[in-house]
TrEMBL record, chains A, B:
The modification 4-aspartylphosphate is found at D58. It comes from Flavobacterium beibuense F44-8. This is Ligand-binding protein SH3. One of its GO terms (biological process) is phosphorelay signal transduction system. SMART domains: HTH_LUXR (SM00421), REC (SM00448).
Length: 211, 211
DNA sequence: TCTTACAAGGGGAAATAACCCCTTTTTGTA
DNA sequence: TACAAAAAGGGGTTATTTCCCCTTGTAAGA
């Protein structure tokens, strides 16, 4: 009986290489490949590598992050089982990975025993949702007032998180200052904030910009 | 000839456990212990465990972080060799670890080969400074125009990172709005920024406020 | 004792941000 | 195709921020 095949996608070489030893130490599991970021992995898949049973996907990566990669996987290989791996447990990120098809979300401070369990469950049952994830799922069901930001709004927010004036932002986006005024007012209402400072804080908290 | 002993201090169990496999795979090295945070490690040291040849110390930990731990080690066991391990390479943090006595600073995306090299160099020569660290050291020597923020200024910055107006901030600090005006202008000059947005970005980048 | 430095406070003006209410154009879709 | 919704643009006003230059008291150094 052949072993369950795992591919690791993580930019922290020290971690991915080490993790591959850990996975290798489990009976029934073997690492079939290690990639440094989503782009490398996708290139390899396009190049025709054999898909593994489970992909372990880091969320925070510089080149092509977990969320982008997850989207691509969902579109092109919707049945691929993926477990997200991350150090951060903020609701936004977790939910985005799950809604894009991740079958599990593990924090990097997970006990190796739980980790093995998660691998086994995802392989056999198809998913593994920790208490944290379940909590977020329930939360989402209850108050489903999700805030949707449009592309253009996100562009505006990013520029608002600089020392540019709104006039300069308008120039940068090739829009009239008055249109920018509209964007701002919309966002203030939608995000329940009152000032540009609030917008900056929101943007950073929700990782729309990174500093 | 006995092996070189390593202790790992890192809150990410998945990482520390995995890393211990990696270290174990190197000839001449063995892991003598794994601790979840600085507090656990220090407690163990106080309890009389044998100090290892090298401590691998994570910088970002929830309970007692790398910097605090490093300070304690410097005070109590100044000859202990420590290599800092971190995902972040911002100058502030790197320099604080180095000035507190870390013999090396490695990023978690380091190649395992470099990692092994670093272990060997720290053991034999006593230190291992990557290009990044050397760069920061030189930088520190050249422009030693460190920015010092006064207590009251920090208080002001924290309030500036909210949706309060300056008038409200003045009330909050029991000062005249005009004094606040002075604080702001001082900071704008000192930090080479032009707007309150710039101040907020500075504050977050330098961890004066956390969001 | 005589600076020097700095915290605190201030006047007044110009630029920018925030607010409210409105029109035109584009777009999606029933 | 026609209707509704969303995007873009606008007028006019007020509040806030930013800027420059100034005074006073106080405490530490030379």
């Amino acid at each position: 009986m052949s072993k369950i095949k795992i591919i690791i996608v993580d930019d922290h070489l020290l971690f991915s290489q080490s993790l591959s030893y850990l996975v290798g130490s489990f009976e029934n599991f073997e690492v079939a490949g290690i990639y440094n970021n989503g782009k490398e992995f996708i290139t390899a898949v396009k190049g025709g590598i054999k898909l593994p049973d489970i992909v372990l996907l880091d969320v925070n990566m510089p080149i092509m992050d977990g969320i982008e990669t997850m989207k691509w996987i969902k579109q092109n290989h919707p049945d691929q089982k993926v477990i997200a791996l991350s150090v951060n447990n903020d609701e936004d990120t977790v939910m985005r990975m799950i809604t894009n098809g991740a079958k599990g979300y593990l924090l990097k401070d997970t006990d190796p025993k739980n980790f093995k369990e998660a691998l086994e469950e995802v392989y056999s049952r198809g998913f593994y949702y920790s208490e944290m994830v379940s909590g977020y799922l329930i939360n989402k069901l209850n108050n489903d007032n999700k805030i949707v930001l449009k592309e253009r709004e996100i562009e505006f927010i990013k520029l608002a998180c600089t020392e540019k004036t709104y006039k300069e932002i308008a120039d940068g986006m090739c829009l009239s200052p008055k249109t920018i005024d509209g964007y701002r007012e919309n966002l203030f209402q939608k995000l329940e904030i009152k000032t540009r400072i609030g917008l900056v804080l929101y943007a950073i908290k929700h990782k729309i910009v990174c500093i």
